[in-house]
Design goal:
The structure is a homodimer of 240-residue chains. With 240 residues, the first copy, chain A, is of the alpha/beta class. Helices cover 29% and strands 22% of the residues of chain A. At the A-B interface, helix 1, helix 4, strand 5, helix 5 and strand 6 of A face helix 1, helix 4, strand 5, helix 5 and strand 6 of B.
């Protein structure tokens, strides 16, 4: 019997926002893998830290964190073959994923490599969407509204078209991976008269959490890569 | 000092997908409120059951579950004033929310009623989006892809336009609240040549979980209100 590849969602950052199921699976893990930026701390490992057994074998996957260099397919291929060695021995491998494994997660590269040959289990996690809405105390969407998630590195014209399209109807918009794109996103939202009601969130659920109006964010300072901008819908039911 | 209104996300259904934080808050709760459909069991209470203390005061909010009759504003207003009585006594009130409180949750009606006068805390939960992707073993979105969430009760033309708009670019689509709209959604996806790759999920994370190709779902049988259809993106990075 080969082992199971387990993709474990850890939520937005607060170790208490890990699910009971994820905590139990990590606490009993023999082999744990996680993405680890070159020369930095692994955010996924930081979140899961209180649950990681001292004697677990750890497989840090050293990945370059610059957008331009993603996906580093050869890195994930090599990590997958290291993970496969343990799976072949009948040992489950727990892969730590910040947020949710299938929501913009690098886990899907390992999944693509290994799903054909091994059984896979996914433990979903609290995504940054929900973490940011909670931090901002801002409902995302209600009833018949649509919700659109758009990555900020998208081309400016495409971003504008998509936001305009959503906004014609009812609907909330979440722009993720803000990083160095604050100025562009501000420009787009301003041109659509949506900048005033947009909210900026960084480090949701962590002690250094920041929530502010987008208009108050300094254009010239780079925001964290994982910061987010929420644009609420049109308040059709008096609930916001 | 007045108490705090705490909106607690419980995840898609499996009690183990409750977060550690939510479990702790429920276990120490004195007053717990939850939506309870007229003449039925409260799904939120079912999920939270293992964590509810025996001596907690419970406030079931009896709501009609038919789409057409939402939002039953007067029901939430009356529930809010009952909750306010406890808050005024300095007692926190925990409101149980299936999924996430701010993602299509009825909690936002209570939030709208009470946020002006009382402090509010939101504990985000695993949403049905992530629960369904995990059940289907289907990544939702990666890198620069967009993700669109669309409620099935939306008008057929609007649904078609929005799906077409998303699909022109890269991006995943999640259609929620399927209920009696299977036939309509099939028709729309078929006309856009997307029906073949669509996946249907009901009761994600629960023992009665069902995952199947949309084309295999019987048109004539009503699906559960909380069932979901995923349409994966265009597989631009070989990760699906």
């Amino acid at each position: 019997m080969t082992g199971t590849l387990v993709g474990v969602g850890l939520g937005p950052g607060d170790a208490e926002l890990v699910t009971v199921k994820a905590a139990r699976r990590i606490e009993t893990a023999k082999v744990i893998a996680y993405p680890s930026p070159e020369g930095g701390e692994s955010f996924a490992r930081e979140i899961a830290k209180p649950y990681i057994p001292k004697d677990a074998i750890e497989i840090p996957i050293s990945v370059p964190m610059k957008e331009a260099r993603f996906p580093a397919q050869e890195i994930y291929r090599s990590a997958a073959s290291e993970i496969a060695k343990y799976l072949d021995q009948g040992c489950d491998v727990i892969v730590l994923c910040q947020g949710d494994p299938f929501f913009y997660g690098s886990f899907m590269y390992l999944f693509a490599e290994l799903k054909g040959a091994y059984s896979v289990e996914i433990i979903p996690g609290v995504s940054s969407l929900m973490g940011c809405a909670a931090a901002a105390k801002q409902p995302l969407c209600a009833r018949l509204e649509a919700l659109s998630v758009l990555p900020a590195p998208m081309h400016e014209n495409e971003l504008r078209c998509r936001i305009e399209g959503v906004n014609k109807g009812l609907g909330g918009i979440v722009i993720i991976k803000i990083g160095r794109h604050v100025k562009k996103v501000k420009r787009v939202l301003h041109s659509l008269r949506l900048a005033e009601k947009a909210v900026f969130i960084a480090h949701a659920s962590l002690p250094q959490e920041r929530v502010m109006k987008l208009m108050e964010v300094d254009d010239e300072t780079d925001s964290p890569y994982f910061s987010t901008i929420l644009v609420p819908g049109r308040d059709p039911y008096g609930s916001r």
